[in-house]
Specification:
- By secondary structure, this protein is mainly alpha-helical.
- The chain folds into 3 domains: 56 residues, Multidrug-efflux Transporter Regulator, Chain: A, Domain 2; 94 residues, no CATH class; 57 residues, no CATH class.
- It contains 11 helices and 2 strands; from the N terminus they run H-H-E-E-H-H-H-H-H-H-H-H-H.
- A two-stranded antiparallel sheet has the order 1-2.
- Helix 1 crosses helix 3, helix 5 runs antiparallel to helix 6 and helix 6 packs across helix 7.
- It starts with a helix and ends in a 12-residue tail after the last helix.
Length: 241
């Protein structure tokens, strides 16, 4: 028996957005598609999704698949550093270590630092960084120790960029690709139906691809509507601009 994404999410007791997130992370295989374009799932997908959900609850995330964005951490450390007392001191120390990290990264990307030396230096810096986080946790400071404990709990995802050459420390490629869609959902409160989800997926995909092709998005969508009204072939998204 096959089902659509809404029924899959209902059977596995998760949200539709959670299903899509697991697909992007590679934790679920790419779904087959019906002729109408809707995703098609079966019972094996339900079982796999339930397993992933249980694994998340038990805390065994595959951290090697993740990279925490250091730009987000930087903003958090700035907020710590602006406080008085021990919290501010720890925040400034974390900021200093983050600045060194970015200096290593920029030197590596500029060809001034060899890969093996970059990895070695980041590993040494990582030990200092994690020790500072642990001191912050032990200090039991309100609105700081808990945040640092959460970062430590996901520490394996701090250093993926140093272990893999195809990952960056800030807003890695996959996050950048979907960021416009995420911001749109926050501003517009998302969609309210499977049909709306499909429309948003397709429109965002077309708009994003058109921009990469250096096409005018409005002009392309207008030409599609005109072609539909005239019952003529739709323009190609990949034709020369």
């Amino acid at each position: 028996m096959t089902m659509r994404i809404g029924e899959l999410a209902h059977r596995a007791e998760v949200g539709v957005d959670t299903v899509r997130y697991y697909e992007r992370q590679g934790l679920l295989p790419p779904p087959a598609r019906l002729a109408s374009g809707y995703r098609r799932y079966d019972q094996s997908d339900v079982e796999r999704l339930r397993f992933v959900r249980r694994a998340k609850a038990l805390g065994f995330w595959t951290m090697q698949r993740r990279q925490i964005c250091w730009a987000h951490l930087l903003r958090k450390f700035v907020s710590f550093a602006e406080r008085d007392g021990p919290a501010g001191a720890i925040g400034r120390e974390l900021l200093d270590l983050t600045a060194i990290l970015f200096e290593y990264w920029h030197d590596y990307k500029a060809g001034k630092l060899a890969r093996d030396r970059f990895v070695l230096w980041v590993a040494a810096l990582g030990e200092r960084f994690e020790a500072t986080l642990q001191r912050a946790v032990d200090a039991d400071i309100a609105r700081l120790s808990g945040s640092c404990a959460d970062i430590l709990a996901h520490k394996e995802a701090l250093w993926t960029f140093a272990k893999r050459d195809d990952v960056e420390p800030t807003n890695n490629h996959a996050e950048r690709e979907i960021r416009a869609f995420v911001l749109w959902r926050k501003r517009s409160f998302g969609t309210q139906s499977e049909r709306g989800n499909l429309f948003a997926e397709r429109l965002m995909s077309v708009a994003h691809t058109a921009r990469k092709q250096k096409k005018n998005v409005l002009a392309f969508l207008t030409s599609c509507c005109v072609a539909q009204g005239e019952m003529s072939p739709a323009p190609s998204l990949f034709a020369a601009a």
